[in-house]
Sequence to fold (309 residues):
Amino acid sequence: MSALGPALPGNWYLLGPSSRLKPGAARSFDVGGTALVVWRGMSGTVQAFAAHCAHMGCHLGGALVVGDTLRCPLHHRLIGPDGAFRHAGGQALAQPAFPVRDHLGCLFVAVGNVGAEGPVEIDRAAFSTCYAGEHHFPLAWQVLVANGFDVEHLASVHQRQLVEPPDLTELGERRIRLRYRTRPTGQSLGDRVMGWLAADGVRGTISCFSGTTMLVESAVGKRRAFILLSFVPGGDGSTTIRGIVGVKARSKYVGWLAVRVAALLFKSFLAKDLGVLDRLEWHEPAPSPALGDRFTRQLCDYFRTLADA
Fold:
């Protein structure tokens, strides 16, 4: 724990597109210093294990998938999808496993106590979705989430003018929500496209779940879109942000194009933060009547309520 809450909150973490993990493949991941190996059996089911073999500590990143078992590269002992060792030489060995879900075409793994909840629920039938990629920052997740909720920097960095008072509300169940309406004022291509689409402004909702998951929903007239962001802490205090974008469209083909345009607009929006966040030494603001400072301090108090995984 730190003054801003846990380094790794218990949560579901986005690993990447499900299509990247083919049957018979295994990939290594690190979530907040927790080393994982995620593998897909030949039947198509996906499992997530602690990366080091429970037998003698061999890293399973080089393990071979045999049918629907994982074969340790050191002693060739087979581990079933439930973590139980086959032919363990009389030992009762079990490989620690983590819940894993295929959701919105991507893989999520649960680290820590997440209760009975799964990843943030979104009706995939209502949206065309695609993976938006990832970006690595040498900053703690709290800094990046706080930046996403910073209503003052919406105007100063992103040229988004607030056209009505925003609202920040804690909803319980480890969730906090910001509602706002903005109007684009910038002159970049992305800003001009958004301004053309959003004559009445962009209505937005940012919901934070368990600290490290952020759902950004926007409505431009009748057009609805979202981006689901997973802030994956590194063991060194850095953070990798991975995202999924979704657009509600009239047809499959229109949706395919629209969601890819949305991904490009999101990357253009994020690019404006890269220079500002470079060499940032962020800290919680002092008590102030300024709206942005009050919201940031409220968000930091929310961080401190979260459980450490």
